[in-house]
Design goal:
The structure holds two protein chains of two kinds. Chain A is α+β, with helices and mostly antiparallel strands. Chain A has three helices and ten strands. By secondary structure, chain B is of the alpha+beta class. In chain B, strands 1, 2, 3, 4, 5, 6, 7 and 8 form an eight-stranded antiparallel beta sheet that branches. In chain B, helix 1 crosses helix 3. The termini of chain B are close together. Classes of the chains: A alpha+beta, B alpha+beta.
Chain lengths: 164, 210
């Protein structure tokens, strides 16, 4: 497929079908895609952190789960999507270096788990239907969303590809 | 409190010197452990936008071995050592065969290799931090190392998130280690130092560049 878009850190990209949305090497970050099959549009965000509160810099709203989800909705509505038809899939939020169990390091690295929890919470808050997700674990993921099949492929090093 | 993005050249030079002393100490420790001459390039200190970090060292999908350590004390920080998967394996085999003889080089269980990697990382990072803490006269305690074998992009994604909680830039100290007698294996090792904001201030004050 010609139209492949790389969704870099904190990016939010909306596309019309046919197109692919790709994020390489998600660690603790989340790749979340919302789409409307009737309007044939999809938008993906590469969320880095759970919560924008306490951060003074909101230049890249895609960085935070709480700002990225409403931004995805706006972008899709601009492309004539209907909110009641929107569906969501997301993957990522690994806790890399999982063997650490002591001291400040552990909370520090649990950002993946919090990212996944906040993504879920904000999708629910905006009443977006969640079709599938693949989060947690301690392995990084490369994700690719295809707007012809509406499937999200999740590739894990040494484990192969799963379609969700 | 100093922001990483607003560090000036004198401050960056001072941090580079710290990096030089730290990585020098780490190279010496590695040399003693492996019984080989370890050469080291002058470290680079760079400010990298967290949004570009995952592609800064090359393709995000390259497999790497990484060790994460959290250090507590007045100079509190996190340190990540990232090496190519092949280079790290070669180092571990070299170390094991030196300690136990040549018969162990192939077919070791993954747990054993991971344990070896954790210990190598512990020694490299511990000696790196030891030199820095000695210089600024602070004491430190480091956590049990965590090990990851994964895509470069995924490891750097975690680094970017950690820096992302306090700003938009990552402070990266990197160097290349070459071990004599191992010419065909790329031993690039990057040590990424993530000082907590208070620790960065302390460091700059102790170096008299604040």
């Amino acid at each position: 497929m010609e139209n492949a878009y790389h969704v870099g850190m904190a990016d939010v990209i909306a596309v019309s079908s046919p197109a692919k949305l790709i994020t390489l090497g998600l660690g603790s970050c989340i790749g979340v895609v919302i789409y409307d099959e009737m309007a044939k549009v999809a938008a993906m965000a590469h969320v880095m952190l759970p919560d924008s509160r306490g951060s003074k810099d909101h230049e890249k709203p895609g960085k935070f789960a709480d700002l990225a989800i409403p931004l995805l909705l706006d972008e899709l509505l601009k492309k004539n999507a209907k909110k009641e038809r929107m569906k969501a899939k997301y993957a990522g939020g690994a806790q890399m270096f999982a063997t650490i169990a002591s001291g400040g390091g552990a909370d520090f690295l649990a950002v993946g788990v919090r990212n996944a929890a906040e993504t879920l919470a904000f999708l629910n808050k905006y009443k977006i239907k969640i079709v599938a997700s693949d989060t947690g674990g301690n392995k990084g993921r490369t994700v690719e969303f295809n707007t012809e099949t509406w499937m999200l492929s999740v590739k894990v090093l040494g484990k192969g590809v799963t379609m969700i | 409190m100093p922001e990483i993005s607003s560090l000036n050249n004198i401050q960056l030079d001072a941090i580079k010197e710290i990096g030089n002393i730290g990585t020098g100490n780490a190279a010496t420790a590695l040399s003693k452990l492996l019984g080989k001459v370890v050469e080291m390039d002058v470290p680079k200190v760079e400010l990298v936008s967290i949004y570009e970090l995952s592609e800064f060292y090359g393709s995000p999908t390259v497999p790497v071995a990484a060790v994460f350590v959290r250090s507590e004390g007045k100079f509190s920080c996190s340190v990540i050592f990232i090496g190519s998967e092949d280079g790290a394996n070669e180092m571990i085999k070299m170390w094991f065969s030196m300690s136990f003889g040549d018969f162990v080089t192939d077919g070791l269980p993954d747990e054993m290799l991971d344990s070896g990697l954790a210990e190598l990382g512990n020694i490299i990072i511990g000696s790196f931090l030891g030199a820095i803490n000695a210089l600024i006269e602070t004491t430190f305690q480091i956590s049990v190392p965590g090990v990851a074998h994964d895509m470069l992009g995924s490891v750097l994604d975690v680094v970017a998130s950690l820096f992302g909680t306090v700003g938009e830039y990552a402070l990266v100290i990197s160097t290349t280690l070459r071990i004599s007698g191992v010419e065909d294996v790329n031993m690039d090792g990057n040590i990424i130092l993530l000082p907590d904001p208070d620790a960065l201030e302390l460091l700059l004050r102790k170096l008299q560049v604040l």
